[in-house]
Amino acid sequence: MAELERHISIWNACLRIFEENVDKKQFNVWFKAIVPVSFEGTTLTVEVPTDFFREYLESAYLQIIKATLRRVIGPEARLVYKVHPVRREAPMVYPAATEEVPVNKPVMINTFQPASNPGPFVFPGIQKVQIQPRLNPTYCFDNLVKGECNRIGVTAGQNISEKPGKTPFNPLFIFGGSGLGKTHIAQAIGIAIHDRYPDLVVLYVTGNEFKTQYVNAIKVNNKLSDFMAFYMRIDVLIVDDIQELIGPASQNAFFNIFNYLHQSGKQLVFTSDRAPADLVNFEERLLSRFKWGLSVELTRPDQETRLAMLRSRCFREGIAISDDVLTFLAERIRTNFRELEGALISLIANATLCQKEVTLELAEKITESIVGEDQTEVTIGKVQEVVCDYFNITRDTLLSKSRKRQIVQARQIAMYMSRNLISGCSLSTIGMELGGKDHATVLHACTTVSDLMSTDKTFRQYVTDIEKMLVPAGR
């Protein structure tokens, strides 16, 4: 058979084995849709319809696929997937059953207690070691949708990745609610730095993992120095969910590591579910250092950003979904990216597994289990009502020209909430509905509220309470 047709011959041989070992219905759904593309050396490349298809295929049939390929091609057999793109971009390529994760170059660790090695951070004497960066290649800047909700964080992260440790953004402290993309931005910074500066040692770790590693280190006699030596060798340290770093002993160790790395011009990136000023049970000297660089809050994505994220993920999955369905999802789920992405994946999974068409009706059914009963639409009138109730003032007072501090702050919070929670509502419309103000006044009010939330705990509590009243938990 001609060389160009070898991939077809090989795949047909594989199909015969799959057909004998897989349920007929499952075989028709998952294996017949695969198209052989090429065969070079010992690598067979096949095309699959979506990225979800690829992920499910490997999660459900990985062992039989491996065994079959080795039987047909040989022990060195490799499989590579190409996901058919929705638009006319180049197809996305995925090595089977593996990810090309970033890997640091080996480094020399100088430790001080030559003894048996009791844990991952103990290296007797001077030894060349491999520090895994623990970065997920999916969380790169290319896969991150940029909007008003995260623009400052993404821009700062990209600047850092170009000149790690040499920008004013050190440390970079990213905070915000769950599912808003803190981990994605932090990991994207690490991935971009690793790609641009492969000699730098990058490490991603969570606050809870750091605390656990510290506790394990001190339980072994005289091994704290090894733990410290390990972390002081890092060039880019990313600590996710740093609010979990509770305990004076572990915080003291982290304080010393922070000082050493920062003074050495190393880059520090932290994420948290709250602002530095709101962290509880943290040493003041550590909190002050968190504020040395740039603190960035991630907010709820607006309608335009939510829709852009859905379209981007559809392309990554290699599946076409109508704008009507995507717009419905973006309007229905407003809380965060994670819930929105989860709804999209659930929709794709149901359509793929049940061989159904992705319709508006199916989207309504899927989202019902995620967001529950119909949400009450947030309107400017609703915002006014909640703010007035909270501050115990009348609507006429809120809309008046009063310059009393409480009234001004209530009016500014109403503008801030209207801008953040109401999709497609212009600054001019908000100003007109809130006392006939112009768009510049509304913009100033939103900036003032953001600034006060970063410096005034009482004011921040006002905003948090009102937001919970407008957007109840689970919405």
In words, what does this structure look like?
- By secondary structure, the chain is an alpha/beta fold.
- The strands form three sheets. The chain has a five-stranded parallel sheet with strand order 8-9-10-7-11, sandwiched between helices. Strands 1-2-3-4 form a four-stranded mixed sheet.
- It has four domains: 3-95, 2-Layer Sandwich (GMP Synthetase, Chain A, domain 3), CATH 3.30.300.180; 107-298, P-loop containing nucleotide triphosphate hydrolases (Rossmann fold, 3-Layer(aba) Sandwich); 306-371, Helicase, Ruva Protein, domain 3, CATH 1.10.8.60; 380-470, Chromosomal Replication Initiator Protein Dnaa, Chain: A (Orthogonal Bundle).
- It is flat, with a radius of gyration of 27 Å.
- It is built from 19 helices and eleven strands.
Characteristics:
alpha/beta; Rossmann fold; 4 domains; five-stranded parallel beta sheet; 12% strand; flat
What does the main sheet amount to? 5 strands, parallel
Strand order of the largest sheet: 8-9-10-7-11
Taken from the alpha-carbon principal axes, the silhouette is flat
- Enter the CATH topology name of the largest domain: Rossmann fold
Mean pLDDT: 81
Total E-strand runs: 11
Helix proportion of residues, in percent? 40-55%
**The CATH fourth-level homologous superfamily of the largest domain:** P-loop containing nucleotide triphosphate hydrolases
Q: Estimate nothing, just give the exact number of structural domains.
A: 4
> Tell me, what is the CATH class of the largest domain?
Alpha Beta
* Helix/strand order, N-terminal first: HHEEHEEEEHEHEHHEHEHEHHHHHHHHHH
Radius of gyration (Å): 27 Å
